[in-house]
Amino acid sequence: MLSPLVMATLLLFLLGAAAGLLLQKLPALANRLNSGFALLGSLAGLVAAIQIFAQGAPVDGQLWLLGSVHLDMLAALMLLVISTVGVAVALYSFAYIREYQGKGDVAIGALMNLFLFAMVGMVLADNALGFLLCYELVTLTTYWLVKSNPDAAKQSRLYLVMNHIGMALVLIAFWLLCRESGSLEFAALRDHHLAGALASLVFLLSFCGFGLRAGFVPLHGWLPVAEPVAPSHISALMSGVMVKLGLFGILRVSIDFLGASQLWWGYVVLIFGACSAVLGVLFALAEHDLKRLLAYHTVENIGIILMGMGIGMIGIANQQPALVVLGLLGALYHLLNHAIFKSLLFMGTGSVMFRLHTRDMDKMGGLAKLMPWTALAFLIGAMAISALPPLNGFVSEWFIYQSLLSMTKLGTSVVAPLAVVMLAVTGAMAVMCFVKVYGICFCGAPRSEKASHAREVPGAMVAGTLLLAAVCLVLGLGAPWIAPHIASYGQALVASQMSVATGATLLPLDSSQAILSPPVIAITLLGLFLIPLLVLAIFKGPKLGRRHAGTPWACGYAYEERMSLTSGGVTHTLRQLCAPLYRKQPQLDLASALHGVSDTSGTTGWLLHGVVLALFILMAVGV
To answer: What is the DSSP string of 447-513?
Structure first.
């Protein structure tokens, strides 16, 4: 039976949207109601997701808004992701929305609630029409949210055009699936085992269609264009949650409906993921705009998640249960982790912009002293995205490394060893990038007049960012207890698709987790930090403690303003070495082919919307 909390989640989001639209003449009250309903709805969704994980069994039901509803472990994980980020964003928006006072702020609050409603509805829906209608509603709400920036007309049109192309591809894929099964219900799609060339066609259509939402290379063109111009708390939802809906769609179609029956599907997903990870972080290193840099890191991390998904699909096709569980564990854990630390980083960036009104890193500097809580939260997010132990990014990437190393033992392909190298290179460059970001933005001397007069943001914004920073620590240190719940989706797939057919037994997950213990790593790192202090305290003599008069050498701090590196100077050598890739960047980006479309009056975008609507009607009537 469907939990009342799930229904309450959807209802609260709708009430929040209605409050924003009905109380436009009372903007202060409307803003508080928008954020309040978003917070309550997200809390209800969070509790509902935790309940489903606790009981460990799928939940079915009916909702008049969506029709049939099915909450398996994958849908519950997505509900957990949406709700966790939603709680933090709602807290943050109580204060951040003041930045848009008198500039359409009520519409932003109402659209935020509608955005959350559409994302939750999509992951709950167990029929094609409900799923696709919510998917389209996500596109339209984010289009208007991006367009809330008066200088973002071109970016919003490009976003609309690219996502409508993806929607058209997804609609064709679902039309083929529903036509063959004779039903719009997902249960019928699961029972009807599509095979052969038609199954491969559906996979390719859905992979490209949902890929345009996920934003991996070369389908990433809208990400560094649209995300930076949206309000920062909306950028957090877009990058942390919305792009994951594309990955959710790929998993639903390729594994849930098609059974990942073809081996080459998994290799396609793995190769695209590895290339997207490396290219995404390379493009990020060249950026001076902090929000564009974070958007490119979304491209990178989507690639890392795709690598885990590809490994899981290869394990299904090869009848390797351990590979399935470990690959999907790494992918889904990183999906959750990326949602948390990327939302944190976008919100931290929003806090900096709230005071400085710039995204240019070379106009920041010295903010750690002036905005200490924001700096602390951003540091935790930077360490997490750089996969440094014992934070959550390290744990999920470790599982993906483990799955890649397990895959190399099959000895059937050179793809896995190359993917290991590409993942290692990606991790090294991510560390380099965030050393640059944190050093330039938060350390040293202020680089502009506004930076020198910055102060900490309001408490609600600090609470939102610190909440996600705490979740990064919990997901890292608590991995031995959390990972088995995340792995339940892969285990259910193995139990239903492989163990019965082949007599294979599940690899006990505890044996792989025993290799990695984040709490032990944390204690070890703390010990390594304390040992030098202990040695110094023991052997410190009177000579060491003697004070000397005079001005000490301060490493050139007196000349810091003239000696400090710019964001471009930090990565100058690497950008020279990789200059051919940067020159070819437009050729790797599908958006470049649509550049002329984005410069038009927007007619093309709405024409595509009409095509999508026509395909909706055709599918409904044809099935």
So the answer is: SSHHHHT--PPPHHHHHHHHHHHHHHHHHHHTHHHHHHHHTHHHHHHHHHHTHHHH---PPPHHHHH
